[in-house]
Amino acid sequence: MSVHVELDLPEGALSALRTTPDEFVRELRLAAAVKWYEIQKLSQSKAAEVAGVSRCEFIDALARYSVPVFQTTVGELEDDVSRE
Question: Rounded to whole angstroms, how far apart are CA atoms 57 and 42?
Fold first, then answer.
C-alpha cells in the first residue's frame, strides 16, 4: 500500500533546480530519507524503502550526502567493547 502526497511549489522552482517533476520527486524522497536516517528517525532499511531504492543504493546515497553509514556513537562503541 502507498500514500499519495501532493506538493505545491512556486512557479519556476523546477526550472531553477534544472530538474523534471519526476526527478524532483525522486531526489526529494531520497533527501528526506537520508535526513531522517541521519537524525535516527528511520533505520537504513526503512529509509531505503521511503526513498524507493535498494538498501545498497541508499548506502551509496549516504556517501554522496556525507552521512555516516553507521549510527553508533563513540560512547556506544566503548560500552560494547567494555562488555566483552
Answer: 16
- Tell the residue number behind the cell numbers 553507521, with chain if given: 70
Classified as helix, coil or strand, 38 is helix
* pLDDT for the residue 82: 85
How crowded is the C-beta side of 60, counted as CA atoms within 13 Å? Answer: 6
Q: The whole model's pTM is what?
A: 0.81
Query: How do the domains of the chain map onto residue ranges?
Result: 17-83
**For 18-64, what is each residue's pLDDT tens digit?**
999 999 999 999 999 999 999 999 999 999 999 999 999 999 999 99
Cα(41)–Cα(9) distance, rounded to whole angstroms?
26
The answer to whether 30 touches 50, Cβ cutoff 8 Å, is: no
Q: Which of 79, 55, 49 is nearest to 69 (CA)?
A: 55
Task: Confirm if 52 and 26 have CB atoms less than 8 A apart.
Answer: yes
